[in-house]
Amino acid sequence: MGARGAVALQYAAAGTLTALWGASLPAFDARLDLGAARLGAILMALALGALVAMPLAGRLADRWPGRRLLRLSAPAAALALTGPALAGSARTLTITAIGLGMLLGVLNVALTMQAVAVERAAGRPAMTTMHGFWTLGAVAGGGAVAAGQWAGAGVRVLVVAGAVALATGVAVAGRGLVEVSPSGTPQAGTPTGSASPVPIRATLLVALGLLGAAAFVAEAAATDWAGIHTTRVLGADAATGSFAYTLFLATMTAVRFIGDAARSRLGIGRTIRLAGCTATAGFGLILLAGELHTDESTRVGCALAGWALTGAGIAVVWPVVTSTLGAVGGPARQISAVTTISYGGGVVAPALVGFVAARVSLPVALLIPAALMVAIVVVAPALLAATMRGHRRPVRPHQPVPHPTTPAHPTRTAGELVDTKRSLR
């Protein structure tokens, strides 16, 4: 297995791990009688644990090779899932959720560093495809929990067995990971086309973090509110509401597997602008659906098309941001800082959209992610171009560099020219 395949498996495992947690929450709620308030507090504890750990993970990645960090954090995060699965009280579940969140935060940074190393070694984009494997893993994990419960298996057994299997799988796959230096570049022996590390201004890092946060807000709005909008605003049944979320995830996954090729063909600026326009059009159709005075099937069809376009547009935004950071180089602290700010957007989004929906209406609340997608169209191309501005072209391996004191075209005698012509015959 090559390094690219090993990293893809790690991404798929991370997606499966996240899905095992999310798909098991209804069973945890029923077993421990949590209620909405406690469940919300537990989800916030998980998110805060991740936010605290991400900056620390960046410092660790600067000191340790990226392979070592991922080989330690991936099995540990998988095994940490057994804590919530076996928790006997809400307090224990909260404590174990904090630990799981911290390990997921470290895992997120370690995965990004490995994907950056793979891109540099291959000399072509790979980040969007890696995130495609993450979504595939999420679908597989959620489906496994649902199928296991339908077959009569307990959630505790399913989660613990899944955690052990994932820990074993990522430990084996970890042998094929790329060894990278603390600065994020492949070490000697690994093909490289990386640029010299370029420090990025703090203001630019914050702006990139906010760009990623905009994508996470839109994604969270879709995953948390697509089904509710379809049922409560448009009057569809619960199955159709679930299908809205599924359609969003399906188009996101499909586009992620073609996103790297599109970026190679169109360039970063056009790709991010097209992504923002697509997602903006999607939210436009969603908002239009609630204003149509037609039959329910037409309104629902309009909204479903909107969620499909939204998923297709959002799919490449965050991968392009992290890939751009990786191409510029610099310490892992930069990537972890941007990741922390961006992830914070995903944490704030559900509460923000819910607050506005409760005070005004859900369609008005969905104007927030729609406006953020417009901002991506307007701001993102210039922002990414500014990030790449300090990027220096790499020197190809084994490319001879002329000595500065040697003339580029040394003067030759007539005899030397004759000898040269004879040697070329």
From TrEMBL:
Main location: membrane
InterPro entries: MFS_trans_sf, MFS_Transporter
Subcellular compartments: Membrane
Region span, Disordered: 391-425
Membrane topology: Multi-pass membrane protein
Highest taxon, organism lineage: Bacteria
Species of the source: Paractinoplanes globisporus
Record carries keyword Transmembrane helix: yes
Keyword annotations of the record: Membrane, Transmembrane, Transmembrane helix
Biased amino acid composition, Pro residues: 397-407
Name assigned to this protein: MFS transporter
Transmembrane segments: 38-57, 69-87, 93-111, 132-151, 157-178, 198-218, 238-259, 271-292, 304-328, 335-358, 364-386
